[in-house]
Design brief:
Distance between the termini: 65 Å
Strand content: 25-35%
Helix content: 10-25%
Shape: elongated
Structural class: alpha+beta
Largest sheet: 6 strands, parallel
Number of strands: 41
């Protein structure tokens, strides 16, 4: 925003997945809440507007798995009678020296190169957990070359001379209807935890699990028990995902039953896990045998074991700020789409993304062209917020100000040009607002709040003192958010010159007061109005990142913080009478309106606290010591219960 001569500035879950008739996910397509797509053999439903976010790549992302399972039928082919087959030796692929495969838990900086699928990708900026996608031109990865894998030269075994019987006529097998290739693809050997337990002479139960980091880029959608590495014994698409929020990784697994198809006493069974298209598979290093005998349960000794006590909660509270941070902080760049927005696109946003930080960019929508709307889509993909800075940047007391145009139409401009994206935060031009304009903003659906405007009484009569400062943790009015503004001379800051860097002082004040500070800036570099010099901007971001890493500060967009502050009240959990779980008031419309992931401080018995949310999502709470645990959950995902103790 620009002012007049006084320049007051505007500052994995246990889920069964099933393939259904839904369209495949496309990275360049924008999806609205409720839309269903297919990706990696699973159906996903959009929780809100999204574009370019890979389903399942982010723990709190815009996609959720659609429940339900359709088992894949097994087709048994009749082998050719009286034919001696000479198996072809398998070739174990040898990775090209120096090749690094992409891992979801690994953080990458600009310039690092990884292999994913059949391509080599180079990171454009700091990134973690975002799958390399050659179709996402706005993403953090770019394709630079194919990723070659050099095979080990095959070794041909010389068979002993044998009499070859005349084969009987072989009928042509019916083509498989399941889409499973025959033979199955060769898999890369990895460590998979799996068991094969007999349930009868020719029957068995199977269970398996594997850390996502071991999957070498395979998105599991199908798994198979195979005999001698070739012949399928069991085909299944039933896969569960367990999310480890603390360590930012997932565990995949499955289970199934084999009826009447096992060969007795053979140490030759392996597990093969493949992606949906069967273009890439991995297989278990370990080999399992089958005895055909059900284990005999020994007669227990006449000693009654002492049962483990059921774990209970003694207290639960919502942390003041996400992740247990002491204070919260938001950065807002005004006047996006004006002449200074190139400095925001070229300098500010890449520096934020490199450090994993987010900010809001307040757009003057009538000045946005196609290129700036395209950059705004990249901002949204990186977690930033697009706020409204009105349609034409008129003062609200000016004759040409029209509420329905400057407030409502600017919001519609953003939705039209950003595929339905909902602007929820408003920034007043010149940071002044008439009583009538403010009342109109409060009544508009979709908006959650706005930056405090000094009261404009008309005729150039401005009543100051309504805007500057740090918001308390329990701030009551989301349409009167306090802020501080950057200027080189500091004349519009609440921190007088000579007391320190006004950028870092505002962060320190938020931490010291346990409140929420918002910082208003414009361009970065040398273009007016009041730009932040590049070196000061980068130093400030490094300072902010150090406070985040120390657990003292949460950096969120203004709408993120507003949602969290009111979710603390309207979505607060209620502990069960038996102290084994809690409910969230999801029927409260205000909880639905402000629903966002909230961080809980749980006091419980035991040294670990495994939780289950909504009956499907496994959450391992982070131990803090002295009986305290921390977990971040989305209230609308359902009740939270303590998992039962393991059997003795």
């Amino acid at each position: 925003m620009r002012s007049k001569q006084w320049m007051l500035l505007a500052p994995l879950a246990m889920v069964a997945t099933v393939a259904v008739a839904a369209p495949a996910w496309v990275s360049t397509t924008a999806y609205t809440g409720g839309t269903t797509v297919t990706y990696a053999g699973q159906d996903w439903r959009a929780k809100w507007w999204t574009q370019g976010d890979v389903p399942g790549a982010a723990q709190w992302g815009p996609w959720e798995v659609v429940a339900g399972t359709t088992p894949t039928p097994t087709v048994t082919l009749t082998p050719t009678p009286n034919v001696t087959l000479t198996p072809t030796p398998r070739v174990t692929p040898t990775p090209t020296p120096g090749v690094t495969f992409w891992q979801a838990s690994q953080a990458y900086t600009a310039g690092q190169v990884v292999c994913y699928g059949s391509s080599r990708f180079e990171a454009k900026w700091w990134v973690q957990g975002e799958v390399p996608d050659p179709t996402n031109t706005w993403g953090p990865w770019k394709v630079i070359s194919p990723c070659e894998i050099l095979p080990t030269p095959p070794v041909t075994a010389t068979p002993k001379p044998t009499a070859t019987p005349t084969p009987s006529p072989t009928p042509s097998p019916t083509p498989p209807v399941t889409g499973i290739p025959n033979p199955l693809p060769t898999g890369s050997p990895i460590a998979i935890n799996w068991t094969l337990a007999a349930t009868g002479t020719n029957s068995a139960n199977v269970s398996w699990s594997v850390d996502s980091a071991q999957l070498a880029g395979v998105a599991p959608a199908n798994w198979h028990v195979v005999f001698a590495g070739v012949i399928p014994v069991l085909d299944s698409t039933s896969i569960w995902v367990g999310d480890d929020f603390i360590n930012n990784k997932a565990t995949y697994g499955g289970s199934g039953s084999i009826a009447g198809k096992m060969i007795v006493a053979n140490l030759a069974y392996k597990l093969l896990v493949c992606n949906a298209a069967y273009t890439k598979c991995v297989e278990s290093i370990s080999v399992q045998s089958f005895t055909g005998q059900v284990p005999v349960t020994p007669t227990p000794k006449p000693v009654t074991p002492t049962p483990l006590p059921a774990q209970t909660l003694s207290a639960v509270k919502v942390e003041t700020w996400r992740n247990g941070a002491t204070g919260a902080y938001s950065m807002v760049h005004d006047d996006y789409c004006s002449y200074l927005s190139d400095t925001q696109i070229q300098t500010a946003e890449p520096a934020l993304a490199q450090r994993g930080l987010v900010a809001a960019f307040a757009a003057i929508t009538s000045q946005c062209d196609a290129a700036r709307w395209a950059s705004a889509r990249t901002f949204i993909a990186h977690g930033h917020e697009i706020a409204s800075h009105s349609r034409n940047h008129y003062d609200s007391s000016a004759a040409n100000w029209v509420n329905s145009v400057e407030i409502a139409q600017s919001q519609q401009d953003i939705a039209t040009n950003l595929s339905g994206y909902q602007a929820t935060y408003f920034v007043w031009p010149s940071d002044t607002a008439t009583d009538a304009a403010l009342a109109y903003l409060r009544a508009q659906p979709g908006y959650l709040g706005g930056r405090a405007g000094n009261r404009d009484l008309g005729g150039g009569n401005i009543e100051y003192g309504h805007a500057a400062g740090v918001n308390g943790a329990q701030f009551a009015d989301p349409y009167a958010v306090l802020w501080d503004v950057f200027t080189n001379a500091g004349e519009y800051s609440i921190y007088p010159p000579g007391t320190g860097d006004i950028l870092n002082l505002h962060v320190d004040a938020a931490i010291a007061q346990g409140g929420w500070a918002t910082r208003t800036m414009h361009g970065v570099g040398t273009l007016p109005w009041e730009p932040v010099p590049v070196d000061r901007y980068l130093a400030h971001l490094d300072y902010v990142k150090s406070k985040v890493d120390a657990g003292l500060l949460w950096v969120g967009t203004p709408s993120d913080v507003i949602r969290y502050r009111f979710a603390r009240n309207y979505c607060a959990p209620v502990m069960w009478a038996n102290a084994r779980g809690m409910d969230f008031p999801v029927s409260d419309p205000l909880c639905v309106k402000y629903a966002t992931p909230i961080t809980l401080d749980l006091t419980a018995t035991g040294t670990s606290l495994p939780l289950l949310q909504g009956g499907t999502k496994v959450i391992n709470a982070q131990p803090l010591g002295n009986g305290h645990f921390r977990a971040t959950v989305l209230p609308t995902d359902g009740s939270l219960t303590i998992l039962p103790p393991p059997p003795q």
